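Explain the record.
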Amino acid sequence: MRRRFANRAALEAWQERRVRRFLKRIRPLSSYTDERFEGRSVDRWRELEPIEKVAMMANFDRLNTVGVTKQKAFEVALEAERSRDFSPSLGPITVGLSSGTSGNRGLFLVAPREQDIWVGSFLAKVLPRSILSRARIALFLRANSNLYEATGRGRLTFDFYDLISPIPAHVARLNAAPPDILIAPPSLLRCLAAELSAGRLKICPERLVSAAEVLDPVDEGIIAEAFGQAIHQAYQCTEGFLGMSCAEGTLHLNEDGVIIEKEYIDERREKFVPIVTDFSRTSQPIIRYRLNDILTEAKTPCPCGSLFTSIASIEGRCDDLFEMPTYDGDVRPVFPDFIRRAVIASTDTITDYQVVQRGPSELTLALRCRPGAVTEVEFCAAVERLQTLFAELGCRAPTIRRSEDLHRAGLTKLRRVERRFDTPPEG
């Protein structure tokens, strides 16, 4: 049942009560969580120093409340990835492994009750119709999980598609069992859009949901045109199911299950890093956990009327902030969204691209354009737009080399704007 709140203040008061009640129950069960409080009462939980993935993994054995060791959990998760058999668990506890986009792979544990909560929340927000109606859901994942398998109940059929499989195999399966709801990373949706346009894929899902990667405007336009519908977004990671778009297409944070504090990195532009506190996850407490994502808050309320925070865009990882030298000898961070918009605005013929910062003053740019476009001309236009952006920001003009290295859909997450220094930056 979806909760209704009179106003934002009522929502926040309800969240606070839930968190305090949750923490009273969890502190005696998680020695690491209790240690973080350093004698404080639970009503001072916002004073806790945020933790990140490295700290969570270092203290995994003392943080979780179900007696699972990091070594054993890694053994189960890695064997599942090797064999592509994702059914094994540790007793009733589901074990999963994150993709490690930021360089550190994280473990997650989910107990049966938490699994039921996740299923209910996920279905309530993803299904376009009543949960009692029949629906076939196709979910493309890097790794399957008992968490997802639990969704296939009663009138719902839940099909797992392994991202490691080739596109023709996906097309054959989808044609044989057409889904009502299709959930996949945008890089995979792009491939399916091409198959649909070529006449090889013959499905017409009721809803498309982008997940696991940043939904770039270039991809969004091509996918929406091919499928003839708008794309919804699910914001989910190791740390939980954090957001879902509404009927208006606006991404809202799932604040009926988590509190997300905003650590602003550019308050004027409303860009922040989320600090997550989940007040329903007991097996692996997520309390003041700082994500590595950059989110941009929407400037205007959503027409749907939801009190939950509206997000204009998920920009990408903090790791992918470009660090550009300035004329006065300093270093200025440049947001992925700035890079993305500059490339897209340079020409309307670009259908695929990737910008990588290779060093303090060196970038590579890979492009793919519509048939008939002169790629060299489009490359020069994009370079000019990027150099104009850097000049406006007071940054020294970098060397921008052309690259042919474009991402392919598969197990590796797409990062269209990426900082990947070939040699460590000075300082």
